[in-house]
Every structure is written in structure tokens, then in C-alpha cells.
Specification:
2 copies of one chain form a homodimer.
Chain A lengths: L14 E7 L4 H12 L7 E6 L5 H16 L6 E5 L3 H8 L4 E4 L2 H11 L16 H16 L14 E6 L4 H12 L3 E6 L1 H6 L4 H4 L5 E5 L2 H11 L8 H18 L4 E2 L5 H11 L1
Parallel strand pairs in A: 1-2, 1-3, 3-4, 5-6, 5-7, 7-8
Helix pairs in contact in A: 2-3, 5-6, 6-11, 9-10
């Protein structure tokens, strides 16, 4: 997700979209971005990320900015907001914008179901809930960093999941994403010529067979990705990419692993599929 | 955000909450989690992440599972969904659960404002939009990995932002988060005894003065975090933490940098504040 987008470079009337929150604004931006993606054929939106609008002075400045855009001839701005404070909400609603409040709509039915009112505090979902969970999360991200690229064979027993695949098949960003968002201890191991020659994996991996998730990729796509990294190298050449992918897939078959194809997948999609497969 | 939560270990009647989507489910989980955080005083929810519910067979299995929970004496389950397919939506709505559809509510007003209908495709926000943007994002994550912990002083000119602070003040996870979510080329540099003795930063950093963001942390908190990493070490000792933080803050003052305090901040909060400060 790219939160900041400069809008349509072709010029013409712009539409500004604000993601507004009393705290990080990540929830507002995530849902706002998802909703906008349904209309990308229509317009190029200029998205503006406005976290920490937590007092009336900031709200007033933002309201003036929004009304100023209309004066300048822009199209009607849109606000996606998660705003528990009524006064700030009313101030923004009073502008010329289309104001979409993401929390309000669902708090009612949830309250009724659970039989209690909402806490009304902001920043609960992306703030620190308690110090212990923060440290837990830090330790999980550190684990992903320390166990990237097969750096520590002795730590695989501590992992929740171990991704294996050839270099540039998507292991590293997927591990980081899973660590950050699913709180999984994610390690990865790159398959190399040495593994192919031996025809089997290191014992440390075989000892953790149930945690292995195999990734594969289209050789043309791999070639393209590696060219970005080391243009014209043997490492990036199409024959080398073809051979590595083929040998990796052979090894996966031998191990009874059904590889996941990352060719047309985003980091989020690969991560979701890996988590689901566990 | 932790998407998978085992529920209340104390026992008693459970309430299961499902995040359901035709694609990655990240939008449903993000907003659902934010909404639930407003009610955490009420119940310990058991959250279940169900991406890729993209055909009627999967929908039917999920519906049976949900109704089964009620039979087993659980409280009424809740579904947070982003589901463009009407037949799947109706199938899930027909269960005993509270079904909250996150997309539907806002698609109407947006359609009216923009004068066009939604594309109806799923997975647009967290999928690959095009190969180029995927590669761009990968290269940005790789940049954060390669420029962690001051590894490459010569690459600072390519960075969008450079975090500086003592070891364990939150630089690495913040850089990774900013790379992943804000598509910023984020580098970081750990302040060490050597920098304090010299009383100034390496020239490569001073040449990129406008990109520097200083992080600081409460010495007690730092002590606690370092103890987790290397218990009983000089590195983790309170006097050492106190001295490092004090010297770092002196250096920041000398450079005219106002440090950001990470003591009670989550990775998302620090990232949001850094992005806002840029």
C-alpha cells in the first residue's frame, strides 16, 4: 500500500483524498485505499495522509485547507476518517468534502451485539497495548532479520515457518511481512547450486520439515527481477534462471513439497497464502 | 496487528471473529481489528483469518463451521468481510453470525460522488497492480535491509530518510515498516561510543542533514529492551543506557535535531510520526 500518491501527472482537475485520524491513521488509510482501488479506472486520486489530527486547532487548519482546494478549482475532496472525537468530526464534516466515517457505521451494531459501549479511545489498534507485546513483536522482527538468507542454520528449530526457494523468489519480503503482521517467527533459506548438486537439503532444514514452505517463480520473471539487481550477470541470465527453477522444483517434488508460485503475487498475497497453508 | 489470536486462556464461552475476504483479507482484518480494539474491555475474542474465500464450496464450508460453533455453545460469531460476490455474501449472511460488510456501506456514496460504478474486482488493494510497482517495492525493501545498522555509509545519498539513535531505540523495525507501507527508502545509523567521543557524525550523514530523523528513548525502557537481548551485559546495564541516551541527546542538540521519543510508541506510531515530519 502506498499511502502518499502525487495524483495524475497529466494535469487537469485533481481530486484530493485525505486519510484522517486522531492517531496513526493506518486503519483509515487501509480501508480508504481499498475502496479507492475500486474506482481507479475513473480518476487518479491525490492521496494525503493526515495522522494525529487530535485537537481543534489541527482540525480547523485541515478544514481550511480542504475548503481552499475547492476555491482553487479542484474537484470535491474526499475524507476517509476514523475519528472518535465528535467536535473534530463535526468540524471536518462542515467542509465541502465528502466525509466517510469508517468507525461510526460499525460501532453501533458491535455495541449492541456485545452489550457494552466502545472505549472511545483512539490509537488502540496500532498503538502500544502493553510493553510486553511490543517487545515480543520487536523480537519477532529481529528474528526475521537475523534469519534471513539462511544466515543461521541452528535457529530453524525456533522458527514458526521457513521459506525455501531460489534467490529472488520473494522469500525475504514475505518473511518480513509475516513477522510484522502475523507475528510469525519467519526464517528463510536460499537454494543454491550446492543444494542442487547434493540433491538434498541441509539436515537442519530436514529436521524442521513440517515448517517448510517452498516458493517457486516463472524463470522469465526471475530473470527480469535479477536483471534489475545485477544487469548482464550470469546470475541474472535466462538459462541460469531456468536451470535453477527447474532444479528447485525437482528438489521440492523429491521432498513432497508443493511449491507456491509467486510470479503474479504481491507480498501480501504470498504472505496470506503461506499463513493459510500452515 | 496480530491477525491470529487464540482467545481467552481463562476458558468460559468464547466468541469467534472471522476476517473473511475473496482475496488477502488484509483490509477486512485491519478494520475489524481496529473496531474490536474498541471493545477489548468486554471480551477476549478468538480471531480467525480466512482469506481467499472465492467460491461457493469454500463459503459453504465456512458457513457450516460458523453454525457448528453455535451448536458447540459458543457465543454468536462475528464476521468482518470485504466480499464483492453476492452469492458468497448471502451464504455467509444466512448463518447465525453477525455479518458486517465493510465495503458495501461506502461503495454507494463513493459511486455517486465519482459518477461511476465500482470495478467489482477483488484483491486490487493488496494485489500486484503491475510488475513495475512490485519491483519498485521489492527494491525499496531490499534497500532497507542493505542499509540497516549503518551498513553502507556510501548509500545515504539514495535514502529518503535516515534514522539515527542508539542501539535498540527502534530504528530497524521503523525502517522496515516505512519501506513496506510508505514506500520510503529508509536507512538507519546506530550512534556508538566512537561517535560520542568524536562529538560529531560521519561526513556521509552530515551531507544528508535534511534526511536525518533522531530517535531517543527512556533509559529505563532501553535497559529493559537490551536486557531481553543480552541479559546482564554491560551493554544492557542501566548506567550504560543512561550515558548513551544522554550523549545521544547532547549530539542531537548540537546538530539542531529535535529527537522523537519512541518510549511509549508502537512501530506504526513511530513510522507515522517520522513520515509526517518529513
Amino acid at each position: 500500500m502506498k499511502l502518499i500518491h502525487p495524483g495524475d501527472p497529466r494535469g487537469g482537475p485533481q481530486r484530493s483524498v485525505f486519510f484522517v485520524s486522531e492517531s496513526t491513521g493506518i486503519t483509515a488509510a487501509t480501508l480508504g485505499h481499498s475502496l479507492l482501488s475500486q474506482f481507479e479506472q475513473a480518476e487518479a486520486f491525490r492521496t494525503i495522509y493526515m495522522p494525529y489530527i487530535n485537537n481543534m486547532e489541527k482540525a480547523g487548519n485541515l478544514a481550511a485547507r480542504i475548503d481552499g482546494l475547492m476555491v482553487k478549482g479542484e474537484m470535491r475532496p474526499i475524507i476517509f476518517a476514523t475519528m472518535p472525537k465528535t467536535d473534530i468530526r463535526e468540524c471536518l464534516k462542515a467542509t465541502a468534502c465528502l466525509y466517510l466515517e469508517l468507525f461510526d457505521t460499525f460501532i453501533g451494531p458491535l455495541s449492541k451485539e456485545l452489550g457494552v459501549g466502545p472505549s472511545g479511545k483512539s490509537g488502540l489498534s496500532h498503538g502500544i497495548v502493553n510493553g510486553d507485546s511490543y517487545e515480543h513483536r520487536m523480537s519477532i522482527i529481529n528474528f526475521a532479520m537475523a534469519n534471513d538468507d539462511g544466515a543461521r542454520l541452528d535457529k530453524f528449530s525456533q522458527a514458526d515457518v521457513i521459506l525455501i526457494g531460489v534467490s529472488r523468489s520473494g522469500k525475504t519480503p514475505t518473511c518480513l511481512y509475516m513477522a510484522m503482521h502475523f507475528e510469525l517467527r519467519a526464517a528463510n533459506y536460499p537454494l543454491t547450486e550446492e543444494d542442487f548438486e547434493k540433491g538434498h537439503l541441509p539436515q537442519a532444514l530436514l529436521d524442521n520439515r513440517d515448517k517448510l514452505v517452498a516458493l517457486t517463480i516463472d524463470p522469465f520473471r526471475l530473470h527480469h527481477i535479477r536483471e534489475e539487481r545485477r544487469r548482464g550477470s550470469g546470475y541474472a541470465s535466462l538459462p541460469r534462471c531456468r536451470s535453477e527453477v527447474q532444479q528447485a522444483e525437482q528438489l521440492f517434488r523429491k521432498l513432497g513439497l508443493k511449491p507456491m508460485d509467486t510470479t503474479r503475487q504481491s507480498i501480501e498475497e504470498i504472505s496470506s497464502r503461506v499463513v493459510r497453508s500452515l
